Amino acid sequence: MKELFIYYQQKKMVFRLPSGWELLTFTAFEDHPECRDVESLTKRALMSPIGSATLKKRITPSDTVAILIEDLTRSSPKKHVLRALLEELAELGIPKDHISIVISLGTHRALTREELQTGYGEEIVRTYEFINHDCSSPDLVPVAKLKTGAIVKINRRVHEATFKIGIGSIFPHPMNGFGGGGKILFPGVANFEAILEHHLKYSFRDESGLGKLQGNPFYEEVCEVARTAGLNFIINSVLDHQDRLHDLVCGDPIEAHMAGIDLCRKIISVKFEKKSDVTVISAFPYAEGTQIMKPFAPASEITREGGVVILAADCTVPLSDIYIESCERFRLKYAGNLRESVLGVFDDNQRIMEDGSPELNMSMAQALLAQHDFKVILVADDIPRETVERLGFLSAEDLNQAFAMSAAFCPNPAVHVVPSGGIILPVVQHR
């Protein structure tokens, strides 16, 4: 049997499938050298933006500039991209006190001073004004309406800036199709209520999903709000299967984003001839408790209903007690009817976790839907067996134990192996 691997515990974990198991697909990508000179690459991209004139032709020293930048949940080389952009703005004569750097947290927690220094550079943090976006701030400014009628408000400093630049990254996203682009503004610097309503309205619908753009209302509304709120320019890293920089695009928030998406599709798309009985998938590069559920999106596209999903996950940031309690409560209340119940809650504009953020509710929905459709076996050294079982999953100490457990549900299965479940775009040939 062919030697296989997944990314787990910050390294390649090599393994073999049991005898009699049929390997359908092993999504090992060709390794490329890591792009180390990010700043030079950024400066070259800034000289030839996509769908836009250069910053030199668009910004004057009298402008105030808001740089919207993604937080630390992604490992893109944002520190180096930011440094190159700031050097470009300095060359254009933009005073330092005309520049605000706003961390596009959406509903995520604020970053500490130490995290800012680590993530964006100590000297830059000392020199420029950094602002953690607060989605519940009382001084957010109304800029748009959702199709539901909900008012979208954004960070006042962003609104008041005469030029708005977003720094993000492009990778498959389970609702928006892809990350990057206008997401840096909405939900990045928007109000809690609008973010929540948008997510509840469009998540886990047939039209919205991994890699989907055409007719995707989640993505379309993100683009519309970003356009209305005046996002002028983006710089987006395109990430490869190891969560490293493959290339970089910049320019118009729609056109440059689409160019980056086209490149992303080319490097991480994988064809699957049919659905598997068992899918072995890693949560890499996600390592936060709420984020490790995201690989269920590709797994659900490539695994037959009633099959087994073996998810190997690092969990460096643990799940909260309230997350575990809410998930367990919902699972026990609606056992046997989880899919309809989850979607029904969203249809009623309610939440699985009362008062929980959109991020937490999306994560719990992914976990609940996965266990409704499949037998889920979680391999995670950082999560106690009791917690795994309260979430509704089976717990295995390692892959070999997970394989033995799978055999009880799917003897001699056909198998897909996905080393990095957070950065893959399945193209399913036959459903």
Main structural class: alpha/beta
From the alpha carbons, calculate the radius of gyration and give it in angstroms: 22 Å
* CATH-derived architecture of the largest domain: 3-Layer(aba) Sandwich
The CATH topology of the largest domain: Rossmann fold
CATH class of the largest domain: Alpha Beta
Q: Given the structure, what is the number of helices? A: 15
In quaternary terms, these chains amount to: single chain
Q: State the helical fraction.
A: 25-40%
Low-confidence runs (pLDDT<50, min 5 residues)? none
Question: Alpha-carbon distance between the termini?
Answer: 26 Å
Instruction: Summarize model confidence as the mean pLDDT.
Output: 94
Number of structural units classed as domains? 2
The dominant shape is globular
Number of strands: 20
Beta-strand content estimate: 15-25%
Main sheet overview: 6 strands, parallel
Order of adjacent strands in the largest pleated sheet? 3-19-15-16-17-18
What would CATH call the homologous superfamily of the largest domain?
LarA, N-terminal domain
Question: Short summary of the structure?
Answer:
The chain is an alpha/beta fold.
Question: What layout of secondary structure does this protein have?
Answer:
Layout: E1 4-8, E2 11-15, E3 22-26, H1 38-47, H2 55-58, E4 65-70, H3 78-91, E5 99-104, H4 113-120, H5 122-127, E6 129-132, E7 141-145, E8 151-154, H6 156-160, E9 163-170, E10 172-173, E11 177-178, H7 192-202, H8 217-229, E12 233-239, E13 245-251, H9 255-268, E14 269-272, E15 276-282, H10 296-302, E16 303-312, H11 321-333, H12 338-347, H13 358-373, E17 375-379, H14 385-391, E18 394-396, H15 399-407, E19 414-418, E20 425-428
Parallel strand pairs: 3-19, 4-5, 4-9, 5-6, 9-12, 14-20, 15-16, 15-19, 16-17, 17-18
Antiparallel strand pairs: 1-2, 7-8, 10-11, 12-13
